[in-house]
Design brief:
Length: about 230
């Protein structure tokens, strides 16, 4: 269902010239990231439900690589989408200049590139660890945090990198989104008419809801355990 839904989003936006706007361009990227994420985890998860719960070493590293790449890129993409809404509502006269095609492609490239650099560094560090003890992962898919306790070599640097990545991708981007919406809400409140305020808020309400749901989950699963 998720694969079909996201694929349809990509197809509809691509074929409809009226949807070739910055927000829908970022939405295509988000849908593509979702397709890759579920394709990385769900097929193996479904297989494990009907057979022995095992995964190869290479398969585990592949899951870590592509899933972490996509999750990091999604967090960055939410920030890019928040900036797009800021430009649309707070700088409407300069919007087409600020969010030009070149700017959108540059932001999308940065989203994919920064996340790729992060997971590439982390996966190289993970590959250099020694695994000689227990091989049971306390999780339903492979990820760096549940994998590190299985290593019989020092993981201090790896743990530090995980915390740094969490701080950058989750907390810093969340703060940037809050700042963007602070300016957005301030601009909306200055609109004189009730209909104008409603129309302005409706353009960013769906993004705000998704960001809230996503970050609440991320903070609960990844950030809070890091603080014990």
């Amino acid at each position: 269902m998720a694969f079909i839904g996201n694929s349809l989003i990509i197809i509809v936006i691509s074929l409809n010239a009226g949807l070739h706007t910055p927000m829908y361009f970022f939405l295509i990227n988000l849908a593509l990231l979702d397709v890759i994420s579920i394709s990385t985890v769900v097929p193996k998860l479904l297989q494990n439900l009907t057979s022995k719960n095992t995964i190869s070493y290479g398969g585990c590293l592949a899951q870590i690589y592509f899933l972490t790449w996509c999750l990091g890129a999604e967090l960055l993409l939410f920030t890019a989408m928040a900036y797009d809404r800021y430009a649309a509502i707070c700088q409407p006269l300069h919007y087409t200049t600020i969010m030009s095609k070149a700017a959108c492609f540059l932001m999308a490239s940065a989203v994919w590139g920064i996340s790729w650099a992060n997971i590439t560094i982390n996966i190289i560090m993970t590959v250099h660890l020694s695994f000689c003890g227990p091989n049971v992962i306390d999780h339903f898919f492979c990820e760096i945090p549940p994998l590190l306790p299985l290593s019989c070599s020092s993981t201090n640097v790896n743990n530090t990198m995980v915390v740094v990545a969490d701080m950058f991708f989750a907390i810093l981007n969340f703060l940037l989104i809050l700042v963007s919406y602070g300016f957005i809400i301030s601009s909306i409140l200055k609109i004189q008419t009730k209909e104008g305020k409603k129309r302005a808020f409706s353009t960013c309400s769906s993004h705000l809801i998704v960001v809230t749901m996503y970050y609440c989950t991320v903070i609960y699963i990844y950030i809070l355990p890091g603080f014990g």
